[in-house]
Model the fold of this input.
Amino acid sequence: MAAHPIQALGEAVGSVGVDPRAYQLSSLFQEANDGPARTAAKITGVQGPGKRDDDSTYFTSNEGIPFPDPAHSKTVGGVPVVSDIHLLQKQQHFNRSKNLERMVHPCGSGAFGYFETTKDVTAHCKADFLKSVGLRTPVSTRFSTVTLGRECPDLARNPRGFAIKFYTGEGNYDIVGLNFPIFFCRDPIQGPDVIRSQYRNPQDFLLDHNSLFDLLANTPEGNHAGMMFFSDHGTPQGWRHNHGYGCHTFKWANRDGEFVYIKYHFLANHGQKQFTANEAMRLSGEDPDYSKRDLWRAIEKGEEITWTAHVQIMQPSEADPDKLGFDPFDVTKVWPKSEFPLHEFGKLVLNRNPENFHIDVEQAAFSPGSMVPGIEDSPDPLLQFRTFFYRDAQLHRIGVNWHQIPGEIHILCKDVILIFRRVNCPFMASSCASLNFDGQIRADANHAGNPQYAPNSFGNKFRPDTAEVPYQLADSIMSRKSHFWHEGSPTEYEQSRALYEKVMNVEAREHLHFNTASALKKVDYPVIQVKYLAQLLRIPYQYAKAVYNLLPEKSFGFEEVEEKSKGAEKIGKEEKFCPSAQTDKLVGKCPAAKVYNA
Ligand code: HEM
Done:
């Protein structure tokens, strides 16, 4: 058996034998036996993938106190006592061994690998990891269902999360996307409602079909994603056979301070495949972990799972809904590929399973706000708010030192300090010197002797070159007035109509009708069914009619749906706040005059 990697490192640099404690270190570092240790093992070439060699000489408590026996508690006359610290610690640790679930996307799994830049995009983007063709950047990924709990069947009808963390030379970059190119709402104030409408009812904790359909019935823009939800895109064949989309519009900025708008498309090289509703239901029963197991097994077999990364590119001068006929910053809309073709720029390759699910996947913290120099936000309101609230969720779920997980490991070997870092740590960054310190479970040097404030007279290592490229919005009025170009307008349905009529084939449409009707029939209130069908009717008439015909029992006629569909685009939209001025739209133009000083 090869030596434990940390032991091996010690041997390699000759520290073993000098200090007798070095021999004990490998067992002391049982928590560290994971990504970094494997990295070290690979560097030294002493260990391939597989189980760690536990070289400890006896089991202990967390304090390192010898553990006497696996099967006998300390008792008085056979009755356990609270002075049995082994019994207590074991139970207390067990009781606290789960993190809080993610509030959304709790059910998922992930893998490690790399991203390779395959095309020169430096004219558009100065991001360090895109600076040259052939450059490889380590990544971690996580795939997930959205609204179902951590241990729910992962083939259930849901969008799929598609999250990538790029460990770049200028910090960690996260793309937190979906297998749909669009989302259900576009104003962040509706975010929790979208999720809650698909959640369990707080009163009886049952999945609530009424709330799902009621929200869609009252949110005209939600029915583009709603249609994808009820199509076979809602039941993909595991995590692997999915395309991934960044959904939002982002900015790419170059070294000259120029920018373009982009959208990400990661196309699965092994194809996009879906189950029918019945197949997904059957397989969910047979193996609730189908998607997680499928990815894991493929990687264990040595398969490489790959996606080709593309961007659509739009010039700031083009990014005006009045010119385009659609809103390029509305996350419920796509950019037509005929007008904005895909440009390849990279390859995503997954080739390594996590060593430990809790450490590598549960504790992973992805945030749309984690953008590196060269990649910036756009005027998309949902993106703006997402850049803030994911970290907020993680402060609650994991704590203020989420970035340290599981802390840094410093090993002194002769004169060299080896530092290993893990899933959320920017281990590839050429500098890591946050001005933040303290907080629970801080495990690094905690700012050490540096001044605890800035600016100061000792070290001011700021990077003005990384300041965001400015853009100019349509107005500077603060109010609740909508800037969504499609709001209250019949144009709301144009893209979902094109998806139904031009992209879906006959079979896809039949599945969509069947899946929608199978869920809609469970709704208790005809008022919701009528209103929801009225939204579908505006996508195209045939969609609503086909679903209506498939409903086994109905207490209303289709003419009621037709009547309700008149003005459906205004449902849920208060006239006072609808866009009316020419400037009530989202744009992000290049400012007419230079903003920063030379
Ligand atoms: C306003 C609507 C939304 C709300 C309220 C919301 C909320 C959340 C929350 C609270 C989490 C858990 C974060 C954590 O604890 O780590 C999460 C995860 C996630 N969200 Fe959203 N989200 C919204 C929209 C979106 C959109 C538009 C996308 C895709 C473009 C998206 C993709 C994801 C993904 C992929 C994850 C899982 C990340 C992981 O694997 O850890 N969400 N979301």
Notes: The first helix runs from residue 5 to 12.
